[in-house]
Amino acid sequence: MKRCFLFFIYAICCLSIVPTTLAHSGFTGAETTRNVTTTPDTSIDIPGVKKIRVLLEEHPDNKETKFLIKSNNGFVLTSPIDSENSAFCHEGELRLLCKKQRLYMCCADGRYHRIKYQSIEIGDPDNKLTFNGHTYQGSIIIRFDETKQTTLVINKLPLEDYVYGVVHWESIPSWPQGMQKVQAIISRTYAVFLMQQARLRNPRFKYFDIKNTNLHQVYNGWHNYKSLRRAIDETSNLILTYKGNIALTMFDICCGGSIPGKMRNRDVSKPYLCRDQRCTYCKNAPSYQWKEDLHVTNFIKGLKKAPQLKNRFKKMGAGLASIKITDTDHSGIVQWIRLVDSNKRTFKLSGVELRSTFITRVKSLSFSVKLIRDRIVISGHGHGHQQGMCQWGAKELIDRGWSVKSILSFYYPGTRLSRLL
Ligand SMILES: [Zn+2]
């Protein structure tokens, strides 16, 4: 075993190294279409999107960071710069250390030795690696981002395996199979949209396509829900397009009845995100209606601590005389709030700023606010950005017998179901 490991070190050091043409206007979706298959309307060829690069972690490079990767079958190590050159390591654990754009590997003597590359791709013959308690298919890449001076940990894997992972975290595994298929199609589409952005336009995504958090889509690797794998296989390569382009299939937990087409800040270049029919199907969602209250002291403390607000609110007094929403758009999204402190100073706060400061309490931007003695009571509808698909609404529509295609067409009007070639 030791000999093999030493050989590996030697080798690595030697490497030079969603119509459905259901018209959006007038379509009610009321017909029962439970058994309709998800046959695509068209196909689309986008080279290079069958494998995705997912950012798992990002660390400042001025600090020492250690990584532990486990495998039951040893490791295949490759330089991403030269994929022809690879080495095999029989060990079950691989320990790496990164600091100041240098990579070190823990060798048989228990010490870290520098390897000559600034990036390394680690694979497993059985296609399953364990990193930070999660199992990942594909490979793990550790590399430096010279622009941001950070060390990146990236999981590179087939797009379909990625979608299989995402559906587990972005849906509820016990929901009906039809809902899993809907989620698979929109999660796949969302990923391909970002892959295109990453590869064509946005230098910020030079080394990866998508993040593994709810900034993009939550992804924590492989799992073993076989029914979800079936949903992925039955929708394999299906995505939504709009006029021949990949659609940005935003989705959230519960729309709370908001109509995206009436939002002031809607993106008119993406009319499929500007649905003008109300989703009334998510009323059973836990977050369809919500109520939170915050003590005034904690509210003011929160504003003064928020990096983007602290300068504006540093002179705010310790008490609040009034709080009032002064501007709401036609969909009910709060735009602006006026605050008057105990010293009669007036402050302006946007709805987005309020929500981002108290994100775990303020679930959406559709809310009303009241000052009751020393408490601020916020009552709202929905959970999320309230654009695109409403997951609780879509699940209800599956229960009512709507087809996958009808649901996609309702939430993303004007899009077509396409197959990636
Ligand atoms: Zn809804």
Structural class: alpha+beta
Helix content: 10-25%
Uncertain regions spanning at least 5 consecutive residues: 1-36
**Proportion of residues in extended strands:** 25-35%
The main sheet comes to: 7 strands, mixed
Give the overall shape, derived from the CA principal axes.
Answer: globular
Q: How many domain regions? A: 3
Number of separate strands: 25
Report the mean per-residue pLDDT as an integer: 87
Q: What are the bound molecules?
A: zinc ion
In whole angstroms, the N-to-C terminal distance is 44 Å
Radius of gyration, rounded? 25 Å
Number of helices: 9
Strand order of the largest sheet: 5-4-9-12-13-2-14
Structure report:
The chain is α+β, with helices and mostly antiparallel strands and 421 residues long. It has helices at residues 2-14, 159-170, 177-200, 226-234, 296-305, 310-313, 351-357, 391-399, 404-411; strands at residues 42-44, 51-60, 65-70, 75-79, 82-89, 93-99, 102-106, 112-115, 119-123, 129-131, 134-136, 139-145, 150-158, 210-211, 238-242, 245-246, 251-252, 289-295, 320-328, 334-341, 346-350, 366-372, 375-381, 389-390, 416-420. Helix 2 (159-170) packs across helix 4 and helix 3 runs antiparallel to helix 8. The relative contact order is 0.17. The model is unreliable at 1-36 (pLDDT under 50). Bound molecules: zinc ion. Residues 254-255, 279, 281-282, 390, 393 line the site of zinc ion (ZN).
